[in-house]
Amino acid sequence: MNARIRWSLDLVRELTRKELKVRYRNSFLGYVWSVASPAAQALVYFFAFKVIVRIAVDNYGLFLIAGLFTWQWFTNSLTVCTSVFLNNASLIKKVAFPREALPLASVLNDGLHFALSLPVIAVVAALYGVWPRLSWLYGLPILVCLQFLLILGFGMLVSSANLFFRDLERLVTILLSIVFYATPVVYRMDMVPERFRTLLFLNPMTPLVVNYQNLLLHGTFQWGMAVLSLTYGLIWLGIGWWVFSRLRWRFAEAL
Question: Is 0.85 surpassed by the pTM of this model?
C-alpha cells in the first residue's frame, strides 16, 4: 500500500478515535446515549401517531425505530460536519494534512454509532415477533455503505461552505427539520397522495429510509431503491468533493 495512503488511513482512524473519546469523556452511560435520543423520539411519535391519531401501520414501533435511527446518523453527521473545520482551526493553521480527513472521521464516528445501534433494532424487532432474515446479512451492509457515501458528500459540502458562509450552520438546522417531515419516517409512502410521491423521491434520504424499513420489517431488500441511493450518493459526493477541492486552499485564511 502506498505510504501516503497508509498515513491518511492512520490519520482518519486516530481522528475517529479522538471523536469517540471526546463524545464519551466524563460520560457514565456512554453508549446508551447513542440510542437514547432516537428511542425517546420514537416513544413520542408512537404516542402521538399510534395512540392519538391511530395511524394504520403494523409494527409501528419497529417502523419508527428503523427510520429514526437511520435519520439520526444523517442529522448528527451534518450538524457536526458543518462546524468541523471551525472547531479544528488551530490544527488546520499549523499542520499540513489532508483536510478531508476531518469530515470523513466525523461521518465514520456517527456511522459506527449507527452500526452499534443495529442490535437494539434487532431486539425491538424480536419484541414485535420479527426475527433476523437472511436478507439482513447483505442488505444492511449495502445500505450502510450507501448511506455513508451520501452523508460524506453532504458533509464535505457543508463543512467547506460554512467557512465562507457562516449562516449556513443555522440554515442546515432549519433544512434538516423540514426534510425530516419530507422523509417517510413517521408515515408510510403509500399514505402520501400519489401525485406527491415522486416529489418525496427528490429527497435523497427517502429511498434509504424506505429500504431500511422494508428490510427490517419484511425482510425485503429493494434493489431499485438501492440503485437510486447509489446515484444520489455519487452525485452528492461529487458535488461535495468539487466544492471542497475548490475552497480548501483558502481554509486557513478564512479561519
Answer: yes
